[in-house]
Design goal:
The protein is about 80% helix and about 0% strand. It has about 280 residues and is mainly α.
Length: about 280
C-alpha cells in the first residue's frame, strides 16, 4: 500500500463529508435524541463508540473488497501492467464522481433496498443508552447507501491485498469523522469553507490527474527506456561482428608450427647427449 493511496482515501472522506451530512445527518440527529437523558460524559463515550463501530464496519467492507480483488482480479493481472492501469482508471472514475458525475446513483438505490431490509434490526438499537447498542448502531451505519463509500470501496478492490483494503476504508471513514462529530456552528463553518473553496472539486480533479499519471507516465518512461536500448543494440552487435574469428587455415598453421618447434627441441636434446 502506498502512502498516496492512504492520503487519497483520507481526503476523499474529509472533503466528501458535506455530502455525508445529507445522507447521515438524520441518523446523527436520531442518535442524539435517543441519548438526551444520558450524562454528558457518557454521551461523549457513546458517540465515540458508534463512530468506532462505523469505522470497523467500513474496514470490514474494505477487507471483503480487498479479498475480492486478490482472489478474482489478481490471477488475471499477474505479470502485466493491468493492476496499475486499473488503479488509474478507478482513481479517474472516483475523481469524476467527486466532481458531480452521477455514476453511482443506481448503486445507491440498490443499497437503499438493503438498508430497508435492516430496518427491524436498526430499531432494536434505540435508544442508544448502552455501549453495546452504540457499537451495533455504528456497525449497521456502515451499510448506509452512499456513492462516496462505494467509490472508496472501488479503490479498496484494486488495492494489493485485503489488509490494504481494510486500512484504506478505515482511513476513509476517519476522514468523515470531523464533520459528523462537530457542533452545529463548526459544521456550518466547515461546510462553508469546503463549498466556498471548492475543496471537494479540487480533490476530485487531483484524483483524476493522479489516475491519469498512474496510467500514462510509466508508459512514457518505458517508451523512452526502450528507445535508448534500441539505439545501443546495433552498436553492441556491430562490435561483436567486427571481431575477427579464427579460420580453419589459421588453426592448421598454428598446429604445424607447434609440431615443428617440438621436433626442433627433440633434435637439440639428442645432439647434446651424443656430445657428452
Amino acid at each position: 500500500m502506498t502512502t498516496a493511496l492512504l492520503v487519497a482515501a483520507l481526503l476523499m472522506g474529509f472533503f466528501g463529508s458535506p455530502h455525508c451530512l445529507g445522507m447521515c445527518g438524520g441518523l446523527v440527529a436520531a442518535f442524539g435524541l435517543s441519548m438526551k437523558d444520558v450524562s454528558p460524559a457518557k454521551r461523549r463515550g457513546l458517540i465515540a463508540t458508534y463512530h468506532l463501530g462505523r469505522l470497523l464496519s467500513y474496514a470490514s467492507l474494505g477487507l471483503i473488497a480487498g479479498l475480492i480483488g486478490t482472489t478474482v482480479l489478481a490471477p488475471l493481472m499477474m505479470g502485466n501492467s493491468t493492476p496499475r492501469i486499473l488503479l488509474g482508471l478507478v482513481l479517474v472514475f472516483v475523481g469524476m464522481t467527486m466532481l458531480g458525475a452521477p455514476f453511482l446513483t443506481k448503486l445507491e438505490r440498490f443499497g437503499m433496498r438493503f438498508w430497508q431490509v435492516l430496518a427491524p434490526l436498526r430499531k432494536k438499537v434505540f435508544p442508544l443508552t448502552t455501549f453495546p447498542r452504540a457499537l451495533t448502531a455504528g456497525l449497521l451505519w456502515g451499510f448506509l447507501p452512499c456513492g462516496l463509500v462505494y467509490g472508496a470501496l472501488l479503490i479498496a478492490v484494486v488495492g494489493h491485498d485485503p489488509l490494504t483494503g481494510a486500512v484504506l476504508m478505515f482511513a476513509f471513514g476517519l476522514g468523515t469523522v470531523p464533520m459528523l462529530v462537530a457542533t452545529h456552528e463548526t459544521v456550518g463553518w466547515l461546510r462553508n469553507q469546503i463549498g466556498r473553496l471548492r475543496l471537494r472539486q479540487m480533490n476530485g480533479a487531483i484524483m483524476m490527474i493522479s489516475g491519469l499519471a498512474v496510467i500514462v507516465v510509466p508508459m512514457i518512461m518505458a517508451s523512452m527506456h526502450g528507445g535508448g536500448h534500441g539505439d545501443a543494440a546495433p552498436m553492441d552487435h556491430s562490435s561483436h561482428t567486427s571481431m575477427p574469428m579464427p579460420s580453419d587455415t589459421d588453426t592448421t598453421m598454428n598446429q604445424d608450427m607447434d609440431h615443428s618447434m617440438h621436433n626442433m627441441g627433440s633434435n637439440e636434446s639428442t645432439t647434446m647427449e651424443h656430445a657428452n
